[in-house]
Amino acid sequence: MFTTLISTAELGTALGRADLVICDVRHDLVQPQWGESEYAKAHVPGARFVHVDNDLSGAKTGRNGRHPLPAPEATSALFSRLGIDATKQVVAYDQGNGMYASRVWWMLRWLGHDAVAVLDGGYAKWLKEGRATTTDVLEPRPASFGIRRVTPTVDAAGVHASIHRRTLFLIDARSPERFRGEVEPFGPVAGHIPGAHNRPFALNLDADGAFKHPSFLRAEFTKLLDGVSHETVVHSCGSGVSACHNILAMEIAGLPGTRLYPGSWSEWSANPALPVERGP
């Protein structure tokens, strides 16, 4: 069973297995239909396309962020349509760095399905190695996805309450310039949640776009925590997507069980009553 990462070689060997479900999660925040268009051109054989906005996000109210977490029941229905049940090994991939694939990984783990892995290096590495692709679209055979658990998340009220008590260690996965409030390409307010610590998700990757060795990741996160228990960690980002990359990286590093603030900055900054901090 693969529960964090799967290599291109391992996926290549597994292609065609009856218990394998592959999710293509390629996406572009600026061009939301790009991923589906790329999928139509070519994809890993057997892969089903999963759209970050349409499938992995709930209804937006203007106050709950750009990629609000769907209800568990709606997510269960999605996974059932994709053919996922307790017997399936799921593999998710995106164009390369795993940012979007990690959202699928986290959502399956959120509802108790542990047999899910991100393709290390993504579709870019798959292509670079000359592995098989296809334009064939196979209709998935519906399954019955059962919710085994609903893993706790943290909401804005919980994050806000922790600021002065320092009960949570908030890690923000956005780029340094967004974290500092120098730019904000997707929302009207720039900055970060007071007290947050910046760990851009790209730091989890090596020069080839694959995840760093677990020992390196563990050393880096341990240094960031500076003696604080990893069990207090809550992850945020722009809209609850790249934060999942840091959760996955900590899992790879042997620091499991950290939590997600799904609304992240796009929800936080939409509420003028909540404090904003700028700078490093």
The beta-strand count equals 9
Helix share of residues? 25-40%
The CATH C-level class name of the largest domain:
Alpha Beta
CA-based shape: globular
Broad structural category: alpha/beta
The string of secondary-structure elements, in order, is EHEHEHEHEHHEHEHEHEH
In CATH terms, what is the fold-level topology of the largest domain?
Answer: Oxidized Rhodanese, domain 1
> Could you report the average pLDDT, rounded to the nearest whole number?
97
Number of domains: 2
> How many whole angstroms does the radius of gyration measure?
18 Å
Going across the biggest sheet, name each strand in turn: 1-5-4-2-3
- What is the assigned CATH homologous superfamily of the largest domain? Rhodanese-like domain
What is the beta-strand fraction? 5-15%
How far is it from the N-terminal to the C-terminal residue, by CA? 40 Å
As residue ranges, the low-confidence spans are none
Element layout with pairings:
Layout: E1 5-6, H1 8-14, E2 20-24, H2 34-41, E3 48-49, H3 72-81, E4 89-93, H4 101-110, E5 116-119, H5 122-128, H6 156-165, E6 169-172, H7 176-180, E7 197-198, H8 214-225, E8 233-236, H9 243-252, E9 259-260, H10 264-268
Parallel strand pairs: 1-5, 2-3, 2-4, 4-5, 6-7, 6-8, 8-9
